[in-house]
Backbone:
């Protein structure tokens, strides 16, 4: 087997017993890194330290990844203009937080016979957000509901810093307020 030492230097081809004895003399482990190679490749290393560093890297990557949620906004075909403005503000807030927004138009009773009214509501919302969004799924009828999926355009919104990551406010060292009793 081909053996590599803990610093990365090639030690050459040797028998497994000889490589194992060399690893034990250094107080390290002999780990097979590529068993399919001809001859197999083994490395002399501290396996416990290696596993610890791998776990640390995985945790660090998990910490850095962001999860995108889909926030839903429900409207009706007869939703008033002012209410739509409020829903648009909610959608903007969701997009600023880095989430996607799902617009759902619910039809009740005979409203379902006029899906164009629901389409007009969705188009009105999309028009209000023009330039800030990308329509990922065009309005689609599913039973008694019409749904559309939108996401923020890259760079359209500034990234909002969560409150726990924000810089702390400087402490107020003024002792003049309530120390008049002394």
Residues:
């Amino acid at each position: 087997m081909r053996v590599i030492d803990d610093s990365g230097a090639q030690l050459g081809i040797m028998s497994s017993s000889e490589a194992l004895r060399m690893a034990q003399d250094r107080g390290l482990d002999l780990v097979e890194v590529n068993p399919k190679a001809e001859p197999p490749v083994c490395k002399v290393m501290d396996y416990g330290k290696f596993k610890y560093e791998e776990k640390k890297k995985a945790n660090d990557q998990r910490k850095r990844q962001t999860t995108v949620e889909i926030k839903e906004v429900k409207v009706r075909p007869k939703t008033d203009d002012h209410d739509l403005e409020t829903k648009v503000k909610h959608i903007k807030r969701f997009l600023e937080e880095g989430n996607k927004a799902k617009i759902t138009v619910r039809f009740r009773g005979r409203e379902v016979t006029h899906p164009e009214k629901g389409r007009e509501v969705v188009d009105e919302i999309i028009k209000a957000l023009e330039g800030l969004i990308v329509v990922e799924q065009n309005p689609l009828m599913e039973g008694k509901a019409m749904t559309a999926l939108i996401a923020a355009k890259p760079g359209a919104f500034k990234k909002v810093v969560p409150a726990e990551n924000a810089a702390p406010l400087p402490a107020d060292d003024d002792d003049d307020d309530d120390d008049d009793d002394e």
Summary: The chain has two domains: 2-47, 70-152. The chain is about 30% helix and 25% strand. The longest strand covers residues 133-142.
